[in-house]
C-alpha cells in the first residue's frame, strides 16, 4: 500500500499521474499547505523538509517500509519498483538527465516565476524578469528537445513526460498575461496535447477533489506557504 501525501499543486500532480497510470493501490492523505498542515510535527516526521508530495510505501524493498519525498525521487522510486515508465535501458542516462533538468531547473524556475508574478509585493521588477526569463529559457530547451519527437526521451512515454506534464500544465500561470502560453513553444504544445489526452490524466486531475482545500489567500496562507518571510514567528 502507498500512502500519498497530497495537495493539488504541480509536484504532487506528477505523482498522482504516475499512480493513476500504473494502477498502484494508494491511500490519499490530504495535506492543506495553505493552512500550514505541512509544518505540523506529525507531517515533519514524514518529510523533514515540510513539503508535499511524500509517499510511504508500506511494502518497500525487502518488506521494509519506505519513505520517499521530492517528486523526482518518488517518480524514480515508483518506476523502479514497478518496472514501468523507465524507457529503454540504453536511454537510462538521458532519462535521469532530463528528470534532473526538470526537477532542478524548469520546475523551480517556473515556481519562482509564479511566486514573483502573483504573490510577491510590487516593485520587484528585477526578480519578476529574472525568473520569468529563466522559465522561458527552460521551456526553449525542452521545446528543442521535443522537435520531431512524441516523447521527451526515446520512443516511450516515461517518468520524464509525467514530470514535465505537472508544470507545463500550469503554463498559463508561469507565462502570466500570454493569451496562448505555449504559442512560442510549438513542440511543447503538440507534446502536451498528446499527454493531456491520456485517460490517466483525467483521473489524476480528479485526485483530491472530494477534499475541501483552502483556496483563499490571507495572512494565514502567506505564513504557511512562505514561512521564511516571517523569521520571528519561526524562531
Structure explained in plain terms:
The protein has two domains: 2-84 and 203-234, Glutaredoxin (3-Layer(aba) Sandwich), CATH 3.40.30.10; 89-197, Up-down Bundle (Glutathione S-transferase Yfyf (Class Pi), Chain A, domain 2), CATH 1.20.1050. The chain is 50% helix and 8% strand. It has helices spanning 10-22, 41-44, 71-82, 92-119, 125-145, 159-168, 171-174, 186-196, 199-206, 219-225, and strands at residues 2-6, 26-30, 54-57, 66-69. α1 packs parallel to α3 (71-82) and α6 (159-168) packs across α8 (186-196). The mean pLDDT is 96.
Sheet having the most strands: 4 strands, mixed
**DSSP E strands, number:** 4
CATH class of the largest domain: Alpha Beta
Tell me what portion of residues adopts beta-strand conformation.
Answer: 5-15%
Count of spatially separate domains? 2
**Overall pLDDT level:** 96
- Distance linking N and C termini: 37 Å
In oligomeric terms, what are we looking at? single chain
Structural class: alpha+beta
Any idea what the CATH architecture of the largest domain is?
A: 3-Layer(aba) Sandwich
Summarize the amount of helix as a percent range: 40-55%
The CATH superfamily name of the largest domain is Glutaredoxin
Number of helices: 10
CATH fold naming of the largest domain: Glutaredoxin
Secondary-structure element series: EHEHEEHHHHHHHH
Residue runs with pLDDT of under 50 for 5 or more positions: none
Over the alpha carbons, how many angstroms does the gyration radius reach? 18 Å
Shape, per Cα inertia axes: globular
InterPro entries: Glutathione-S-Trfase_C-like (IPR010987), Glutathione-S-Trfase_C_sf (IPR036282), Glutathione_S-Trfase (IPR040079), Glutathione_S-Trfase_N (IPR004045), Thioredoxin-like_sf (IPR036249)
Protein name: Glutathione S-transferase N-terminal domain-containing protein
Pfam families: GST_C_2 (PF13410), GST_N_2 (PF13409)
Organism: Mesorhizobium captivum
Amino acid at each position: 500500500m502507498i500512502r500519498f501525501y497530497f495537495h493539488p499543486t504541480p509536484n504532487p500532480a506528477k505523482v498522482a499521474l504516475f499512480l493513476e497510470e500504473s494502477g498502484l493501490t494508494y491511500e490519499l492523505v490530504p495535506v492543506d499547505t495553505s493552512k500550514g498542515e505541512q509544518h505540523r510535527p506529525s507531517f515533519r516526521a514524514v518529510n523533514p523538509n515540510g513539503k508535499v508530495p511524500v509517499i510511504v510505501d508500506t511494502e518497500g524493498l525487502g518488506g521494509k517500509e519506505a519513505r520517499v519525498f521530492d517528486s523526482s525521487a518518488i517518480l524514480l522510486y515508483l518506476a523502479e519498483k514497478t518496472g514501468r515508465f523507465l524507457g529503454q535501458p540504453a536511454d537510462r542516462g538521458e532519462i535521469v538527465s532530463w528528470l534532473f533538468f526538470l526537477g532542478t531547473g524548469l520546475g523551480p524556475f517556473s515556481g519562482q516565476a509564479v511566486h514573483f508574478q502573483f504573490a510577491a509585493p510590487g516593485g520587484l521588477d528585477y526578480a519578476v524578469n529574472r525568473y520569468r526569463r529563466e522559465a522561458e529559457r527552460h521551456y526553449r530547451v525542452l521545446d528543442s528537445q521535443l522537435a520531431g519527437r512524441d516523447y521527451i526521451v526515446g520512443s516511450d512515454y516515461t517518468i520524464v513526460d509525467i514530470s514535465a506534464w505537472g508544470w507545463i500544465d500550469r503554463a498559463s500561470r508561469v507565462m502570466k498575461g500570454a493569451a496562448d502560453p505555449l504559442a512560442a513553444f510549438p513542440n511543447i504544445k503538440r507534446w502536451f496535447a498528446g499527454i493531456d489526452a491520456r485517460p490517466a490524466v483525467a483521473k489524476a486531475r480528479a485526485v483530491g477533489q472530494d477534499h475541501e482545500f483552502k483556496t483563499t489567500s490571507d495572512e494565514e496562507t502567506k505564513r504557511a506557504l512562505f514561512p521564511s518571510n516571517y523569521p520571528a514567528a519561526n524562531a
